[in-house]
Amino acid sequence: MFHRPAIPTVELPWLSASGNAGFAALGASFATPTSPTPLPAPHWVGCNDAFRAQLGLPNELWQQQEVLELLTGNREPANHATYASVYSGHQFGHWAGQLGDGRALNLGAIQSPIGLHELQLKGAGPTPYSRRGDGRAVLRSSIREFLASEAMHGLGISTTRALCVTGSPAHVHREEVETAAVVTRIAPSFVRFGHFEHFAANGQIDELRTLADHVVAEHVPKLQAMQGAQRYVALLHEVTQRTAALMADWQAVGFCHGVMNTDNMSILGLTLDYGPFQFMDGFDANHICNHSDHQGRYAYARQPQIAYWNLFCLGQALMPLIDEQGPALAALESYKQAFPEAMDQRMRDKLGLQGAHEGDRTLVEDLLQALQQDHVDYTVFWRRLSIAVRESAHSSHAFEPVRDLFLHREVFDAWCTRYLDRLGAIDRQATGDAMLRTNPKYILRNHLGELAIRQAKAGNFAMVQDLLHVLHSPFDEHPTYETWAGLAPEWASSIEISCSS
Ligand code: AMP
Ligand code: MG
Known about the structure:
The longest helix has 27 residues, at 325-351. The protein folds into four domains: 9-187, no CATH class; 193-345, no CATH class; 357-436, no CATH class; 446-494, no CATH class. The protein has 16 helices and 14 strands. By secondary structure, it is of the alpha+beta class.
């Protein structure tokens, strides 16, 4: 079923030097040689030049036709095989068995100034793991992934990165006929919890150990001196800590992932697989961004708990290497302290609070309840609060723009009195400035992505590029794009994002 006509090869020094390194070096049990399936008439949709420079890739990359062809899946690297990897996972709380890179094709690794990074094309055609899927991605979801990855990076949150998106007029069938696109994703590793679950479920213990040793050697070298079970317990502990920090980051910025299945969980604690995600507009702890998630399993407020559940799946998968339950459970249970501590710290930073006081958690909970009651825009609230604190150094009306966001003004007033009391006699100017570096002005709101997508569908990619630019520095002022920092328009709430991508 995988007889495809050979496609032309391309030789690029930056690609061929270490193409076989990284995950590919683990061999055939992990990396299944797979060629991309070409798409007609490719064109650039979005080019991330800042990231290109960080990776040390050639200045003229976007002018090279062979690179456009390569990153659309119309050329193969001359000196090494491209591949798909196999993984399994739990989806919506149930064991789903084998999944794998159904539409992600790995181009190999590149050695860059920021270390060895894996390259992946998402949407470059079917693989042995496509099951009933077509191996494609549509323009709409590819633009969303491109912008979201970079928005997260701009916010300082661990994530896979995106180098570019290419498009093609080729049709892709979803609820409607759409057009194809390919995202070039880049990360130090694309290893998922599901990779470990796969080998554990199949009793492939040697492979399980090889994979764990690979992750330690390449990505957590501080654990390499440890031997045997101790090393794998330490790995589980490390992943637990990173995941706890990631969840605190997501919650603090109001990010909903939407599909937190174990096959979408990164072993490095990166945000991975952007599908029906959403940066919240009005605050709602029960917000469900994925219209296919009928039970609300992955609602905003449940994410930290779901991550913990997913970590248990990882722990279970690592048990053949650990043997004793006690140390594995202790590693996992470190989440119960790490997550609340990280969350408390994020919220204190957002509020500009110094030190840790006993009533801080109640102060935060009461604030969130007030935001929830009036569905106050989460990002606008924090930004206005930061400005208010700064302005309050010399104005007695500083908090009025924050107060205006609430319907129940008396609730805000009561909270604000407690807040100012807790802030105490600090340098308001300096505290406000620090808060402005913590609370972003720009997030990738659904309606901004939607507007960029509409324009892109009409052949205009300027907004994709402009959003990329603004989202790379979301704490800065971008006067030209002031409206992008405003409240979401009425129609934003009617945007339905499902798993379809
Ligand atoms: P996701 O929900 O996007 O994380 O995908 C779950 C699984 O379905 C993964 O194994 C994907 O590779 C696979 N998949 C999703 N969409 C497609 C598609 N269009 N073609 C092939 N496989 C897909
Ligand atoms: Mg996935």
